[in-house]
Amino acid sequence: MSIAVNGFNSLDSYVDTSSVSSASGTDLSGKLKNIGQSASADELKEVCREFESYFIEQVYKEMFKTIGGEEDGDASMSSLVDYFKDGVIQQVAAQTTEQTGGPLAQQLYEQMKRNYGIVEES
Question: Assuming Cys at both sites, which of 48, 51, 73, 81 could form a disulfide with 109, CB separation 3.0 to 4.6 Å?
Fold first, then answer.
C-alpha cells in the first residue's frame, strides 16, 4: 500500500519496523498483508481498530522518550521497568481507542472498504 501525503511517497520508508518489540506490531503486519478480497467487513474493522491502537501506542512510547529518566538506577531494574511500562502503554493505547470510538480506525475502514470493494452485511 502506497500513501502519498505532503510529498511522502510511502509509510514503509518512514516506519522503522526493526525496532518493533511488541507482539501486536508483528501480528498486525501479518493481518494487514492477508487483507484482500476475501476479508469480511468485521475482520477489516477489527484490523483497523488494532492499527489505531498500535499507532497510539507508538505515539505514547515516543512521548515517554521525551521524559528524562533516572540514570543512577540498576541496569536490570531499568530493563524490568521498561518491560512493564511497555505493557501498560499497550493497555492504555487499547483503552484509548476503545473509549474514543476509533476515529482513525473508522477513516481507515471506510477507505479500505472502498479500495477492496467490501460490502457490509446487514
Answer: 48
Beta bridge partners of 8: 5
- Cα separation, 106 vs 43, in Å, equals 13
SS3 102: coil
User: How much is the mean pLDDT over the chain?
Assistant: 74
Q: How confident is the model at residue 52 (pLDDT cuts 50, 70, 90)?
A: very high
- Read off the pTM: 0.63
Report the alpha-carbon angle 101-106-112, nearest 5: 160
Tell me, what's the pLDDT at 37?
53
Q: Which DSSP category does 8 fall into?
A: B
Distance CA 19, CA 32 (A): 19
CA angle 116–121–122, rounded 5-degree value: 150
For residue 94 the three cell numbers come to 487499547
Which of these, 100, 96, 110, lies nearest to 45 by C-alpha position? 110
DSSP 98: H
- Position 80: which residue type? L
